[in-house]
Design brief:
Layout lengths: L3 E7 L3 H12 L4 E5 L12 H6 L1 H20 L14 H25 L3 E4 L1 E5 L3 E5 L5 E11 L3 E3 L12 E2 L1 H4 L8 E5 L3 H12 L3 E5 L11 H13 L3 E3 L3 E8 L2 E7 L4 E6 L1 E4 L3 E3 L32 E3 L10 H15 L13 E3 L4 E6 L2 H6 L4 E7 L4 H5 L6 E7 L5 E8 L2 H13 L4 H5 L10 H9 L15
Parallel strand pairs: 1-2, 1-6, 2-3, 6-17, 8-15, 9-10, 9-15, 10-11
Antiparallel strand pairs: 4-5, 5-6, 7-16, 12-13, 13-14, 18-19, 19-22, 20-21, 21-22
Helix pairs in contact: 1-8, 3-4, 3-6
The protein binds nicotinamide-adenine-dinucleotide.
The site of nicotinamide-adenine-dinucleotide has 24 residues, from helix 6 and strand 18.
Length: about 475
């Protein structure tokens, strides 16, 4: 096999493996290098998302949700159970099996599509050459006409809270706990803090979330973040805003977290602390000085709108470049770059990237929030539908939350959709499709939705934009 390829992809997370498969499908001779190995030293594909991110967290979120429902909600709907218990070892085993199945699936897909996979640590050097060091110390060099960097991101750590992998842990450690901590501290009320805080709270932990900002979920539409704060509080998450963690101290009876808020200094004693204060792009050891690839001031690989770096023939996609750190955004970038290398002309629509927080209810949005529209001086109309008015939501006791559609005041084009509801991660795709097609609120209003379904909430919210929703009051007086 030649050491020269049409495309080398560094990183086999969602962005990288999508790029590699698509490139190979288009007839490009493609290699994919990833350094991730399991305990036995065997290569594992799928990156953070499959191994220690999206997939295992969703497994734990689903199991913990079912457990909580069985314990707290079933009796009200006539399902009686014997004592409901959770076996953490079985829960974790199930999670591992899900991860194993999927990572093997990715390996199978790469193979079936003819991608050559290397398990090694790769460094990009001058002339689009890639030096690969495998775990057994073997060195190999390959080169390509095009290189796609997809090296992902790693958790941010903060000096006051040094992680010891035992008491003070990151998101990866929080997915691996073998017992339910009685008291859990979470630093950061972002996506990871809320999802993992929810998992362990449902399983019985008393969870305190310390958030530096004085606003909860500032990137979400404010109506949604207010509703979310209300729901999470009801579920027992103690979210303390405007708190600055100054130290963690491991003692015999737990971890003491020192923090200050607007009033004074505090100490909180917990059994474990999860540090979830964000992620940063991973480029350590990936780029030699001669590679020609530049970083931006925040440490991301500098790319243009088409994911081209400053070096000819070298592209970067996913968490390692600007934009939201979301697997689906990286996947689309990977596909776009592969297709562009093959001579096609696709684009990624960065205005239509859905965001989801997999709490219960789920929180999801796409496009602009009311606050962004106001700040940009865009005139808009709003339609809101409370899930409590949905027949299907009532039938399945999922009445918390709302759906909001924002449309341009003049053109009626949909500018943003914001959902807090059960299955919001599924519902939001309907809004993404509508926005991709440039739909107006009227277009959605004129669309027939199956009854009864949660999706009808989106229909009603779109109708509410022009005061035509049926299941909420928006009666106008005749004059
Ligand atoms: P995040 O940026 O979503 O949230 C981090 C939070 O920590 C912020 O609210 C920030 O203000 C707070 N914070 C920062 N420093 C702090 C400090 N010293 N003390 C207290 N609070 C502090 O980051 P994350 O939750 O760690 O997630 C990382 C990335 O992974 C995000 O980009 C996220 O989008 C992505 N992710 C997405 C999903 C999903 O799509 N469901 C799930 C997990 C992670």
């Amino acid at each position: 096999m030649s050491d020269y390829y049409d495309v080398i992809v560094i990183g086999a997370g969602p962005a990288g493996y999508h790029a590699a498969i698509r490139a190979s499908q288009l007839g490009l001779n493609t290699a994919c290098v990833d350094k991730w190995v399991d305990a036995s030293g065997a290569g594992v594909l799928g990156g953070t998302c499959l191994n220690v991110g999206c997939i295992p967290s969703k497994a734990l979120l689903d199991i913990s949700h079912k457990y909580k429902q069985a314990r707290e909600d079933f009796s009200a709907i006539g399902i009686t159970t014997q004592k409901v218990d959770i076996d953490i070892a079985t829960m974790q085993k199930n999670k591992r099996e899900v991860v194993k199945g999927l990572t093997r699936g990715v390996a199978g897909l790469l193979k079936a599509n003819g991608v050559e996979v290397f398990t090694a640590t790769a460094e990009l050097v001058a002339g689009r050459k890639v030096k690969m060091l495998s775990s057994d110390g073997q060195m190999k060099e390959i080169s390509a006409a095009n290189v796609i960097l997809a090296t992902g991101s790693v958790p941010v750590d903060i000096p006051p809270c040094p992680m010891d992998g035992e008491s003070v842990i990151d998101s990866e450690g929080a997915l691996e706990l073998t017992a339910v901590p009685a008291r859990l501290g979470v630093i950061g009320a972002g996506v990871i803090g809320l999802e993992l805080g929810s998992v362990w709270s449902r399983l019985g932990s008393e969870v305190v979330v310390l958030e530096a900002l004085d606003e909860f979920l500032p990137s979400a539409d404010r109506q949604l973040s207010k509703e979310a704060a209300k729901q999470f509080k009801k579920q027992g998450l103690d979210i303390r805003l405007a708190t600055r963690v100054t130290a963690t101290r491991v003692e015999d009876d737990g971890v003491v977290v020192s923090y200050t808020d607007t009033d004074s200094d505090h100490e909180l004693l917990v059994d474990k602390v999860i540090v979830a204060v964000g992620r940063k792009p991973f480029t350590e050891g990936v780029l030699s000085a001669e590679s020609g690839v530049q970083l931006d001031e925040r440490g991301f690989i500098h790319v243009n709108d088409l994911c081209a770096t400053d070096a000819p023939g070298i592209f970067a996609v996913g968490d390692v470049v600007r934009g939201p750190m979301l697997a689906h955004k990286g996947m689309e970038e990977g596909i776009m770059v592969a297709e562009r290398i093959a001579g096609e002309k696709p684009l990624v629509n960065y205005d239509c990237v859905p965001s989801v927080i997999y709490t219960h209810p789920e929180v999801a949005w796409v496009g602009q929030s009311e606050e962004q529209l106001k700040a940009d001086g865009v005139g808009y109309k709003s339609g809101v539908f409370p899930m409590a008015a949905s027949g299907r939501a009532l039938a399945s006791k999922e009445t918390a939350g709302l759906i909001k559609v924002l449309a341009d005041e003049n053109s009626d084009q949909i500018l943003g959709v914001h959902i807090m509801a059960a299955h919001a991660s599924e519902l939001i795709s309907e809004a993404v499709i509508a926005m991709e097609f440039g739909a107006t609120a009227e277009d959605l209003g004129l669309t027939m939705f199956a009854h009864p379904s949660l999706s009808e909430g989106l229909h009603e919210a779109a109708l509410a934009v022009s005061g035509r929703a049926i299941h909420i009051s928006n009666r106008k007086r005749r004059t």
